[in-house]
């Protein structure tokens, strides 16, 4: 009974419980318990908030937890130089950042200006990644056969016909490995990646036909393929997400009044169905929060069986249910809502200590 209770606590509360007695500390420190604890943590939507504090610019990384009893918008990390740092990927409680402001000296004496770093907010570990300055991240995942954490990369400057992809293993001393790619000039990729069933997924549009598709990367076979996607008139207003171990897509219509939520009912047969339609009360929203602006952002997630829809309009983050009811509203200046999720973990990773600039409890936390 105690094991089941402790496994459901959030990481901060669990760490405090370790001080109760030696037995609790012992049982909550073994790997099997930590894996079970990670599996019981909610996958919370991530957002970034740019702030100007005097002469310094910061980027706050926050999560939204509608079940929290204190603050539903919760602080995760803070990084300086907000305009140059970007959250590019998340996987199993790990966050991957790209920083274009840091000029580093390579072994051959040349300089390059992109730095990658990996962090675990729950354990407050942080480290920079080597040898990736000429690459752009496309996703991060755990390789099931080896349990390695890997990053899928593409080059900043590559062949104009084929967009080559590379794989980098966290903690490895080997350079990224070339695995080929897909024709780049034929597609545009929209939104963040979604990891589901051991594959990474992206929403893309073919230039010639303007048709909407999903590109899939099998992380075990290391191969690409395409899947069907719902019909999308404007790919910039469509976002892929994962919910209940199914692939989903939210689509904002052109008049900013309706959010259609599609779910893939059959992954193998690629069958989609319109599951929810959220109709926004635009007139009343304009009265409460001012005129609704263009370029809204939408994130769909689930919590304890409820489907929640987050919409960012200007400086407001609005929370709707699938019956189109406004549940809550939050005012946050400079907030950017993405599709990344954070499922916190206390599971130790050995690759951290092999990386340069490894630190615990660094300033960003």
Q: What can you see in these coordinates?
A:
- This protein is mostly beta strands and 365 residues long.
- The protein folds into 2 domains: 1-40, no CATH class; 41-357, 6 Propeller (Neuraminidase), CATH 2.120.10.
- Helix content is 10%, strand content 51%.
- It contains 5 helices and 27 strands.
- The protein has helices at 2-6, 11-17, 22-27, 31-39, 282-289; strands at residues 44-53, 56-64, 73-80, 85-91, 94-99, 104-105, 111-112, 115-120, 125-129, 135-143, 148-155, 162-169, 177-183, 187-196, 199-206, 212-218, 223-228, 238-243, 246-252, 258-266, 271-279, 297-303, 306-313, 316-321, 326-331, 335-342, 359-360.
- The strands form 7 sheets. A 5-stranded antiparallel beta sheet has the order 4-5-8-9-27, with no helix packed on it. A 4-stranded antiparallel beta sheet has the order 3-2-1-26, with no helix packed on it.
- Strand 23 and strand 24 (316-321) form a beta hairpin.
- The protein is globular and about 55 Å long.
- The relative contact order is 0.15.
- Residues 103-112 have low confidence and may be disordered.
